[in-house]
Structures are given as C-alpha cells and as structure tokens.
Amino acid sequence: MMSTPTVRDRTAIVTGASRGIGRAIAAALGGLGMRISINYHANRAAADEAAAAVEHAGGQALLVQADVAKAEDRARLLDETVGRFGPVDLLVNNAGVAPKVRADLLEANEQSFDEVLATNLKGPYFLSQQVARHMLEHPDRPDRAIVNIGSLSAYAASVNRGEYCVAKAGVAMMTTLFAARLADAGINVFEVRPGIIETDMTSAVKQKYDQLIVEQGLTPIRRWGRPEDIGRAVAAIASGAFPFSTGEVINVDGGFHMHRL
Ligand code: NAP
Question: What is the rounded CA–CA span in Å between residue 152 and residue 143?
C-alpha cells in the first residue's frame, strides 16, 4: 500500500465528490488514509455512499453541502473542513456540470453560459484563491497541491456545448496561473484531464460513444474511462509522486489527445 504517515495526517477537499469522478477521487485518497471533505451540491444520498466508500478505503469523511458557484458556500466549505480536520493540504476542484441542453453554438443562450461558467470556472478559480490564502497561513506543511479536473474539451471543439469547452479552456489557464503564483510557497498545481469517462454526465451519450470508442477506435485504448482511472492519478499526486512538477497537465484519456495519421 502507498500509505505513509505524512499522507495519513493530511486533509483534502474534493468538490463534487458525491458521484462519478469525484467519488472515485475521494475513495482513492481515502485509500491513502487521508481525511476527506466530501463536497456535494444536492444529492445527499449519493454523498452518504461516497463517505462510506472513503471510510471503507481507510480514510475519514466529512460531508459538506455547498454550491461551488456561490461565494458564501465556498467560504463555509473551507471553514467547516478546517473546523473538523485542521489545515487543508490538497484541494481537488472536480465539481462540474454539462450544459442542461446541448445547443448549437449559434443558438445557445447566455443563461446556460453563465451557469456553466459559474460552476466549472468561476467557482474553482475563487475556491483556489481562498484555499491558497489559507495554505499560505500554514507555511510549514509539506507536499501541498491543488488539482483541477479539466477535460479534453479544453482543446477539442464540440460545437453543441461551446460554454463547456470555454470553461475547461479557462481551467487550463487557471492551472498555469496558480502554479506560477504558488510555486515559491511549495504548493504544486496540476490539471488532471479526463477523456471520456463513464458517469452520470455521459450517460445520455453512452450509445454514441460505445460505437465511437469500441468499434471505431476513437481512443487508442479502446474502452471507456472509469472514474477510478482519475482517482488513481489524483492519488499519485497526493502521495507526493511529482515533487518537481507543477503547471502540468496529466491526460487520463486512453490516448485520445494524440494526433494520428
Ligand atoms: P457527474 O457524475 O455529473 O457528477 C458531478 C458532481 O459534481 C456531483 O457530485 C455533483 O453533486 C457535483 N456538483 C455539480 N454542481 C455542483 C455545484 N454547483 N457545487 C458543488 N458540487 C456540484 O460528473 P462527472 O462525470 O463525475 O464529472 C466530474 C468532473 O469531471 C467535472 O468537472 C467534469 O467536467 C469533468 N469531466 C468529466 C468527463 C466525463 O466523461 N464524465 C470528462 C472530462 C471531464 P450532486 O451529486 O450533489 O449533484
């Protein structure tokens, strides 16, 4: 097992950890013995299951309902986490939404743009700012990190969900910005960039992608990504595997990002 005493004493916030990728990240960090603040938006039953998964894996869990798009909720998320577990060592910005309706670029409306940008970019941007300030108040803790869950949509254009692509492109620059600002403080910042992962978010397009992935070889590794694939990547970062890397993008996408001829 990769668990070490230093990891065991450490605390993580994982946003959107009730379901899908976030739950798998929380469980993988639980496997390192970490204390995990499981943030969720509305689905308390799913958050309870995520907490059980963390505890089963060997970690400790705290549930915090908070909408990452709201400043007061973000502040409460940090306060409740620190109140229960003490200083935060790892922030995983995972919470995200797809547009409610996939609409063509020339038809999509401002309301959907605002909703997607608020949750997928503005929320993580200002939560990172807030957690970074908090981390700077505790300079002696080792191996701190911020991990942003991006997407291949940062570079692959989907003209029926432009707002999602723009938000994820913003997350890529946000990673670079915070990495540059926080390197001197010993806080490394990463983007973990999933490919096509089987979760509730992709359930509506399952048949389409079954065909593209398995039959047409859209991804060189011909299978759906699993939430656990992302969890393992984040746990590697949390366990201190990349001490001399920051501003890095780690593709977890079955090789989708390669140009092939
Ligand atoms: P999901 O299954 O739909 O789960 C979304 C999670 O985010 C849930 O835990 C949800 O909480 C939470 N959430 C949504 N809005 C929130 C808000 N305003 N405040 C706090 N939490 C909120 O999604 P997923 O597929 O696991 O995606 C997770 C992340 O990976 C997202 O950033 C997504 O863009 C990214 N990603 C996914 C894929 C993919 O193929 N699935 C690919 C690339 C990137 P509730 O349970 O309370 O609703």
Answer: 27
- Please list, in sequence order, all residues whose beta carbon lies within 8 angstroms of the beta carbon of residue 253, skipping any fewer than 6 positions away: 152, 193, 194, 195, 196, 219, 225
Residue 5 pLDDT greater than 50, yes or no = no
What's 86's domain CATH number? Answer: 3.40.50.720
Q: Report whether 44 contacts 34 (CB < 8 A).
A: no
Candidates 40, 155, 164, 209; catalytic one: 164
Q: Residue 33 sits in which domain range?
A: 7-251
Q: Is 125 a catalytic residue?
A: no
For all residues of the chain together, what is the average pLDDT? 96
Run of H or E including 123: helix 123-136
Give a yes or no: residue 260 inside a domain: no
Total domains in the chain come to: 1
Q: Is residue 256 part of a domain?
A: no
Whether residue 129 lies inside any domain: the answer is yes
pLDDT reported for residue 6 = 63
Domain-embedded: residue 1 = no
User: Is the C-beta atom of 119 inside 6 A of ligand 1?
Assistant: yes
**Centroid of ligand 1 to alpha carbon of 233 (angstroms):** 17
In this prediction, what percent of the chain has a pLDDT beyond 90? 96
**Given ligand 1 and candidates 13, 14, 15, 19, which is best to mutate, with the most ligand atoms within 8 Å of its CB?**
19
Q: Please give the Cα distance from 203 to 108 (Å, whole number).
A: 22
